[in-house]
Amino acid sequence: MDATEKVAYGFCFLLLALLPLIKLFKTRRGGNGGGMRLPPGPWRLPVVGNLHQVMMGGQLVHRTMADLARRFDAGAPLLSLRLGEVPVVVASSAAAAREIMSKHDAKFATRPWSPTVRVQMVDGEGLGFAPYGALWRQLRKITVVELLSARRVRSFRRVREEEVGRLVGAVAAAQPGEAVNVSERIAVLIADVAVRTIIGDRFERREEFLEAAAEWVKIMSGFSLGDLFPSSRLASFVSGTVRRAKANHRKNFELMDCALRQHEVRRTAATTGVADEEEDLIDVLLRIQKEGGLEVPLTMGIIKAVIRDLFGAGSETSANTLQWAMSELARNPRVMTKAQDELRGSLRGKRTVTEDDLAGLKYLKLVIKETLRLHPVVPLLLPRECHETCKVAGYDVPKGTTVLVNAWAICRDPRHWEDAETFEPERFEDSSIDSKGTDFEYIPFGAGRRMCPGMAFAHASMELALSSLLYHFDWELPGGIPPNNLDMAEEMGVTIRRKNDLYLTPIVRVPLQSA
């Protein structure tokens, strides 16, 4: 939470305490009673509920919620909170997550629509936040079968290899001893890969696109005052929630229009038709739109929303995971050296790393796996809404409750992970645990109907980029900073990114061009 948001929260607490919202609180509170056995939770204040504990506690929300869960029954499987007007249940155990995303998956398959989400979806709903129903099922099928299938991911191999080559070249061009902004380089790489797969070319307004995507990630967190007090115009005004959401929505869709025009110009200039294996993702969506026969027509608004979701999810998750991986490797030189030894021993002086080289790199895959355990990019998996009262872990979850799965807490649960706070890729060496949504102690991509469909796409980019950075360069912290002193502060949004950019000093070990 930035300083402006903290001031807004404090000011709104003061004003809300003076307003006759107690009546509203009492009225809404009645819906959660009725003799139900609700999950345990901390004491609440009138009107604000648990906001003072969750939002003003000095930690990021996923950490605070994990701490609160540990206070009840030595780690209650479910935690009951009220954040302003919003009833919330948080799952902090693998067992509870399994019930929500497997046993009762259909009852928790829809998304809550906050004021921010409503603004962002006004012109078209994307896969990420579309309510569970015909449109969502249609978009899910299109995404899994057409947009992010294994065949489609393989078709973009050349794009990934070219852009990673540009990344390596840019890092190699740094002056000896000069620290490189690794965060910035990775963000540019992933953005260019994502945009080229979407429109077939680098976007001429890339920097604006990155800024708009970063803003979208921040405002979609669901923890602004306007989202937590949806009936209060005062809360919306003080926090600026709707204003920010509208401005960001206009900017995103204006950029989408520009990207579509750039795509159209490129296709018009082409002298031949587009082969199936050469289709970019806009080609695919426009082809499906033209073919018709869909239960819900694919409007241009929906296409733009899908593009926004693909770019936001693809760029944020991959870029943030790579930044955290490089951060953990810089903090753990033993692990970095072991990964580099595997790479250099396997490639034996090759000029570049290609995707053909990745299959045998077992330890590198463990590094990424452990990074996703310690730093799941969406620590509180995208919220779900209970649309039918049911029992989870022996507790009643009322209809209309917002349900959060704390993947960050689950992936650090000492009941499942020895030395849970330690970065140790070797823990996965003899383990069958994977991230495909069946091992609920490890759910960096979620599980069930709402599981992220882009896992293969993300891994393809991350593995090639990380292997290339480790193969060609040794890395040191600038200014002789001890590894244990590396800043690992987080910044909150839908995803968790580094609060401050990561700077490392590269030392070329395997030149990009052979002698």
Automatic annotation (TrEMBL):
Annotated compartments: Membrane
Protein name: Cytochrome P450
Coiled coil region boundaries: none
CDD domains per UniProt: CYP71-like (cd11072)
One BP term from GO: diterpenoid biosynthetic process
Cofactor(s) listed: heme
Record organism: Zizania palustris (Northern wild rice)
A Gene Ontology term for the protein's cellular component: membrane
Keyword Transmembrane helix among record annotations: yes
Keyword vocabulary terms for this entry: Heme, Iron, Membrane, Metal-binding, Monooxygenase, Oxidoreductase, Transmembrane, Transmembrane helix
